[in-house]
Amino acid sequence: MVANTIKFLLNNELVNIENLDPNTTVLQYLREEKFKSGTKEGCASGDCGACTVVLAELDPEKAGQLTYKSINSCITFVGNLHGKQLITVEDLKDGAKLHHAQQTIVDNHGSQCGFCTPGFVMSSFALHKQNNKPNRAEVLEALAGNLCRCTGYRSIIEAAMTSSEGNQDDSFAKHYQQTLVTLTELEKLPTPTLNGNGNTYIAPQNLDELATELTNEPKSTLVAGGTDLALSVTQNLAVVKKLVYVGNVAELTTIEETESEIVIGSALPYSDFIDTLHHYYPDLGDMIERIGAKQVRNTGTLGGNVGNASPIGDMPPALIALGATMTLHLKGTERTILVEEFFLDYKKTVLQTSEFIKSITIPKPIAGQTLKLYKISKRLDDDISAVLAAFFIEQDGQKITNVRLAFGGMAGIPKRGSAAEAALLGKDFTKESVAQAKAALTADFQPMTDVRASDKYRMTVAQNLIEKCYLELQSIQTREVIETRVVNY
Ligand SMILES: Cc1cc2nc3c(=O)[nH]c(=O)nc-3n(C[C@H](O)[C@H](O)[C@H](O)COP(=O)(O)OP(=O)(O)OC[C@H]3O[C@@H](n4cnc5c(N)ncnc54)[C@H](O)[C@@H]3O)c2cc1C
Ligand code: FES
Ligand code: FES
């Protein structure tokens, strides 16, 4: 059964949307339909954070609790609001009293022209809702997706550092129980759809429904977080005829661990699996923290990153280096392939019509294996890679017994450097074998020049990263030997 409506809480008011073009973003909806112009449009591409709003959702891990996430409203389709609470800057204050996230900006002189301020306030609000005593690193992480061109960041950071108190008694805390009840009721509603302007949005609730939808309408476009797809609408003015949202499909939004593997649902946002991956592969966790900013990681997914098949997506090289596999689903049947087999050519994949990515399986590390990841971009936070290098190395003593060197940004697809790998496999990891691998890399890749880097830069940096990996592993091993000697002494 489907319902031709999207229902959600706009702040504390239950709202229905019918007859609206599903290509509408949350930002357009707020400003043009609800005349709530507190949420600003800076870039319309997820880069500046001026449009930040907060979504509260039922916490799937903890019954009876809500999670609060900052998102970029400019690249979120309005249909994705169904079943959630959308919190905007206008409604933070309680009566005439400013919310602490706002008052501390005033107290710390954190605003000049004010254009960025609502976005900073909302990022700070989301942080403090989740974490009552954030440290400086957590504040910086929460604000990294918000840009300010005039105030300077010190006072804004100071404001966010001091805005802890007062979250317990804001208007959202007062309505907490009622919000839980309403969102729980919304969860039970039939599959939501939205039709407008001849375009359609549907949010299937389980795997069968999704598979049937895609079989019946093979020209549909899947959307998860929309952090890639929405740009085609906001930047290229594309119109998507039929959007199928995967974020409500229970089977795609889980993370499971077996003794040897981690299985991540394709529609699970980064924020919900980063800690698990960080635990097993610290380099991978650190790298994911550099995918976009908090707002992007709160909605962006692994399925979207891989499904987008961009040569500069950060996860595919990492997954290829790890020997990860992916489960693809088509009309009730499933197949499992290596992630590296997924990419055929620039933006071309093995996905058949109506087929979709169900999950990605990452092997857990075992002794002797190392994963090193290097993201080369102009900025540390919220920037796209010029080159992403992912090296998986298995050693028996010095001897390399297994190696996968995968790169993004070096070719039309993410791929392994097989000649460079051959120069290392079976050899000791030494300066000499590294020099051979660096030389061999020129047979593997002929990178291109674009706005992010020249072909020469890309090749040189990729070669040097192999050497960097060698030097880092040497220094770890040397340190371990010294520490063992000290202990033995
Ligand atoms: C400001 C900003 C910064 C960014 N920074 C980075 C970065 O540093 N590194 C990086 O790698 N990316 C970055 N991105 C790109 C993007 O955030 C990621 O690729 C993200 O993982 C996409 O996930 P999504 O859920 O938003 O995908 P969506 O936009 O929803 O979908 C992307 C594509 O995948 C398809 N798709 C979605 N789910 C599935 C599925 N289950 N099966 C098959 N196909 C599917 C969609 O049809 C679409 O074609 C950035 C984006 C923005 C806006
Ligand atoms: S308007 Fe810049 S991130 Fe949305
Ligand atoms: S106060 Fe002007 S952009 Fe931040």
Protein described:
With 489 residues, the protein is an alpha+beta fold. The protein is built from 17 helices and 21 strands. It is globular. It starts with a strand and ends with a helix. The mean pLDDT is 95. Bound molecules: flavin-adenine dinucleotide (FAD) and FE2/S2 (inorganic) cluster (2 copies).
Features:
about 500 residues; alpha+beta; Ubiquitin-like (UB roll); DNA polymerase, domain 1; Uridine Diphospho-n-acetylenolpyruvylglucosamine Reductase, domain 3; five-stranded mixed beta sheet; 17 helices; binds flavin-adenine dinucleotide; binds FE2/S2 (inorganic) cluster
Distance between the termini: 73 Å
CATH C-level category of the largest domain: Alpha Beta
Strand content: 15-25%
Arithmetic mean of pLDDT: 95
Please identify the structural class as seen in this structure.
Answer: alpha+beta
Write down the Rg. Answer: 24 Å
Q: Please tell me what the overall shape is.
A: globular
Give the low-pLDDT segments.
none
Helix/strand layout:
Blueprint: E1 2-3, E2 6-10, E3 13-17, H1 26-33, E4 52-58, E5 66-72, E6 85-87, H2 100-107, H3 117-130, H4 136-143, H5 153-161, H6 171-174, H7 176-187, E7 191-196, E8 199-202, H8 207-216, E9 221-223, H9 229-234, E10 242-245, E11 255-257, E12 261-265, H10 274-280, H11 282-288, H12 294-297, H13 302-307, H14 315-322, E13 325-330, E14 333-338, E15 343-345, E16 348-349, E17 356-363, E18 369-376, E19 387-396, E20 399-408, E21 415-416, H15 418-424, H16 431-444, H17 455-488
Parallel strand pairs: 1-7, 2-6, 8-10, 9-10
Antiparallel strand pairs: 2-3, 4-5, 4-6, 7-8, 11-12, 12-17, 13-14, 13-17, 15-16, 18-19, 19-20, 20-21
Helix pairs in contact: 2-3, 2-5, 3-4, 10-11, 15-16, 16-17
The structure holds flavin-adenine dinucleotide and FE2/S2 (inorganic) cluster (FES) (2 copies).
